[in-house]
Amino acid sequence: MEHEVVNTRPPKTNKLSLVRSCVLGGQANHVDHDIVNAADHIITRSIELYRDQPRELQVEAVLLLVQGRHTFVRVGTGFGKTRISEMNFGLFDKKVVVLVLNPLDLLGDDQVCEKKLLNLTAINLNIDTV
Question: Of the N and C termini of the chain, which has fewer Cβ atoms inside 10 Å?
């Protein structure tokens, strides 16, 4: 099973270098325009939904998810990990199942409440609900 580890890096590189390093393995002489267009679409949809520019790492993670790649995101509290799953979910007309692992029951409960306000089906699986 292939895994991609997405981790923090120094702030702000341009989108083309992001796409090259993240998805194309750093091949500077080859650009997949479908990937560049996908990155543009992810950024545009995120701005429409959240009225905020997504972070570079969020776009990178969603690009990997859209390609069907197993993706692990390890960043600090408050970075915007939850938004990655929401951005991915929002890209599809036919809705998919998104599994989010939370280390804290209260965080899971809060996220379930947020999703229900958006008319999304959500459940926090923990020792009390299983």
Answer: N
